[in-house]
Task: structure prediction
Amino acid sequence: MGEKVTVGIIGASGYGGVQLVRLLSEHPQVEITYLGGDSSAGKKFADIYPHFAQLPLTIEAIDLEAIAQRAQVVFLSLPNGLACQMAPTLIAKGCRVLDLSADYRFFDLGVYQSWYGGDRQDQEIAEKAVYGLPELFRDRIADAQLIGCPGCYPTASLLGTAPLLKQGLAQPETLIIDAKSGTSGGGRAAKTHLLLAEADNSLGAYGVARHRHTPEIEQICSHLARQEVQVQFTPHLIPMVRGILATIYATMRDPGLVRDDVLTIYSAFYRSSPWVTVLANGVYPQTKWAWGTNRCYIGVEVDPRTGRVIVMSAIDNLMKGQAAQAVQCLNIMLGLDETTGLPRMGFYP
Amino acid sequence: MGEKVTVGIIGASGYGGVQLVRLLSEHPQVEITYLGGDSSAGKKFADIYPHFAQLPLTIEAIDLEAIAQRAQVVFLSLPNGLACQMAPTLIAKGCRVLDLSADYRFFDLGVYQSWYGGDRQDQEIAEKAVYGLPELFRDRIADAQLIGCPGCYPTASLLGTAPLLKQGLAQPETLIIDAKSGTSGGGRAAKTHLLLAEADNSLGAYGVARHRHTPEIEQICSHLARQEVQVQFTPHLIPMVRGILATIYATMRDPGLVRDDVLTIYSAFYRSSPWVTVLANGVYPQTKWAWGTNRCYIGVEVDPRTGRVIVMSAIDNLMKGQAAQAVQCLNIMLGLDETTGLPRMGFYP
Amino acid sequence: MGEKVTVGIIGASGYGGVQLVRLLSEHPQVEITYLGGDSSAGKKFADIYPHFAQLPLTIEAIDLEAIAQRAQVVFLSLPNGLACQMAPTLIAKGCRVLDLSADYRFFDLGVYQSWYGGDRQDQEIAEKAVYGLPELFRDRIADAQLIGCPGCYPTASLLGTAPLLKQGLAQPETLIIDAKSGTSGGGRAAKTHLLLAEADNSLGAYGVARHRHTPEIEQICSHLARQEVQVQFTPHLIPMVRGILATIYATMRDPGLVRDDVLTIYSAFYRSSPWVTVLANGVYPQTKWAWGTNRCYIGVEVDPRTGRVIVMSAIDNLMKGQAAQAVQCLNIMLGLDETTGLPRMGFYP
Amino acid sequence: MGEKVTVGIIGASGYGGVQLVRLLSEHPQVEITYLGGDSSAGKKFADIYPHFAQLPLTIEAIDLEAIAQRAQVVFLSLPNGLACQMAPTLIAKGCRVLDLSADYRFFDLGVYQSWYGGDRQDQEIAEKAVYGLPELFRDRIADAQLIGCPGCYPTASLLGTAPLLKQGLAQPETLIIDAKSGTSGGGRAAKTHLLLAEADNSLGAYGVARHRHTPEIEQICSHLARQEVQVQFTPHLIPMVRGILATIYATMRDPGLVRDDVLTIYSAFYRSSPWVTVLANGVYPQTKWAWGTNRCYIGVEVDPRTGRVIVMSAIDNLMKGQAAQAVQCLNIMLGLDETTGLPRMGFYP
Result:
């Protein structure tokens, strides 16, 4: 089996970080050699997450030099705008970097800056970054030194949409993505509207017509459709911890297509993708099926009355939508089977 | 204040029934004189709902003759297909009837039969029924002897859509309603997929492109738009007890309209409707705000990039979506203020 | 009906405050004339709770002089240690005061200071305060000028325990109260452990053997038992918004008593208490039955094998455990029926 | 690594079964060769749990002859009273059997029959069964041919109580176990009180003073204490899917012991138990820490005022409380490390 690959995680105290620690510490080919954090430096990891009592990990201050010496691969799980200050140094020192923030998701940093602000000087490095959605960019990920891991909403949205656009089934300008997410997507920082007493048994949209995942979705949709695509993207907060469902609407180019046709096209599209399950005729996904796994479940319906296709795409936002997908990318980068070390079956019920 | 109006409730053991009992027993102008049920006949109401221990009500077998003698107004809260066997008799005996099932929601019984099945012989009576959505049919409700109370999804959907169609703001063929409901909408009968262990922390669509509330929504939309309207309606089950949010998408006829314009039109439309609150610029509704009340909260967004208007409409599915709206209709039928006896402010948090 | 009583609420932005606003604005004999707050002064109440959009209330800075001029009765809903700085002034100016904090719950300020800290100079006023648990101190509340409203855990615990101790049924030193509360008891301030993503689907004890409601419970238990009583009190945080269940264990003095005997004694004890429902033989309370009401449900079991009595007492922590009980006290102070203006029947499901 | 052990699962469609399928299909030393069921015979497993779409398993009719030919080890996950009709045959044919029902948990079938009913003729075989709680009976499990796997409540209760009784720290007659469980403990059959609309946001006790897990707990407690022990056991239903917390109260024999003493004793007791984590001073367990793992978290508090020790014990009821603990037993039976194939770290948040 050879030597284990050494990995570091910077920003381990959030929900992305704790998933990375869990997955990587159970991964057979990997050894965690560095946990970095600023505000939590010096703490044992078990002080932050007591259920890791049996894991003797301590968070260290972020020292890029030390990290590069101890880790061949570095995961950055930090707020937007920080990875771009660290990745160039780590790459220069020979590390391979997987960034879970928005910093390296955009081909064009101008788009990044208009939605996320900040002043970016690393266009050259950003151009080399590969968008870490393996089902679409598997080959490029294999050779990449820098991965910009997708956002949770874009992962669910793009896996549901890609066959439509790539195969020219849908009229791109009719694309509407009504997305629903559990509250863990909002992170672990204490915010009033995410309190159980507020968020439980309630439901609402937010960021309508201006959520920052919109340009990320549009960038890849445009790439797939080989034309400029604008999408209507509406996120909703759902009273549950984990999971995203994207309900995707589009008018079909050919109104004669039936559900079976579309399912056949989807199944073919994902034939070589072990983490995407296209559901049988008439089965629609429940987000809980994906809980705890790296899997995306896709269901398809066609409405002959309206000429629309409706695609439902479900993931665990912290797994396929974040940490597990990053590990899937790592597997591809290391030449491993892309399912290595990742739970295959849902934690259910 | 005059004498109280006597009311009977047939089918009091479900969630609609228990809300009716609660609301009507606290209503200042009304006296419950009959609770009817078949499977539960002979039981004390508190045997079914122990939190009604202090209320000395017993469920009696359904005897239309006895009901008509004791109740001036009768609420029918039964599965589809039963009200149409009772309402004609009750009406003949002089009762006013509010039916909470689908039986009297359709102008054309042909539509009813093609979606709900059954063999209906009461077209004459069905034609006299008034659709019990007071914000649209207030005047006709006042004089009606038979009310077909709207479904929960149609109530949220239509209140959110009506100004768009009535004022010609939207292109009707672009109408997409992505609706989300708590599980109480599925009723109190034990079903595996509604168990807490299954439904909690999960989310999925169902009845895509074929839910029976679609023709009900289309019937009223067509009436409002004065043309045949087809809608794309997709219901989702949300891990919460109560509440519906309808997220409504439509392409605007005039792409120059901005959010303020649309809000002005909505506010004017609902000027005389005490139970609809059009939210301020940039505020989107949370379903929990409506919890326990008869209120509908509406938020509006316009996306200048795509030329679409996005309307969010939130109600409590058991209140404005069912029992409280029926009481609102009753108030109008009795010439009372339509807020009489209904909780005005949300149970929050 | 006479003129309405003018009331002020200081500290209206928390969960206690929003319940007070809701209840008092629907109360037929009361008019809210002052909402006071420091951090939220100048805001409309609907900015904090948008579901109050239809209620034109604005929060003003706390000015005791102005309050006393405009309000005959003042509710203080503030963190511990603030009411004792305001109540003496308000009382001196002739207001009647209901304090929802811990400041006036203790006969002996020494006990207060040893558990809550601070330096209290108002022993004289504190001695005149009446403990606002109407089922035990109804007569004294009627004449009081200052009410120290009970904590949520003590309310559930004491209503479940009082007949045992008052009638000498239980050996006081065996008293164990295992209490469970929804997360709204932790207030509306953003804390990580109360986030939905953390608290949902989880359960744990806290403050074991040292929670500050212990001395409050012991003070009243000792009063009832006419001897010093120590209780074992263990609170737990439950993944739900509202509700407290206290499961109370005690060894019976007379092992020959059976469940019916105990139920008879409980029913007699609460004969004149409209807000306590002693459940029938073999029925145990569900917290949700009490949701949205001022009611306490009590179930009783006797274990002949062990000689213990087990009492279960369920309330809505924000209603009978806080705001609605304060309104119940107000009703008694005003000579009204103690059920006036309070919802009688649970919001269910 | 040798050949894989062949295992069969009878009763795979419930929550215990689906966990067994998940765990055993990911276990490196085991191969599932038989899924048996009566009502579901002939169905694909993915028809019952669509998230197993990628696992090609079909449920077969229960044929003991066929099972014994294809499986060296058989898990029985059936309602009480069925395993005792199958286990004798399977054992006679040379299978090793792990039963997840109550049938083989009792040394004395008289106790079983008085609490569970039925007419048992298999006392001889029942006497050879080993109680499958590895932390207490590890050695006997290694050699057993028949395991009676513990109930979920007894697992949490006994792991929390064992050191107290075994080391004589507590007065046995003072033992009170106030236990709280998620609703998945009630199984997957549709019952009204387990509907999300009923159980969510509610909380109550059930089976007070007469729950069938009481004699199971008492049997092992008596064994540990070497005297007859009666416990006060009260289960509660909590609005969450998974998890059990047992809060255990006992008066200490030596009132001079402090928390550190008790923690030292607990840590020593579980020194060789990789699946029990005794938490640090002042840390109390959250059930969610155990989610998805076979771990039991134990926290300890001592109240010097009352002379009581309070122990909190948290598990995942479907894992350590059911399926994963059975796999832990299997590992011991096969001479493997007892952690083999079981997730070590919690699924969190």
About this structure: The mean pLDDT of chain D is 96. Residues 5-149+322-333 of chain D form a domain with the Rossmann fold fold (CATH 3.40.50.720). Chain D touches chain C through 46 residues (CB under 8 Å).
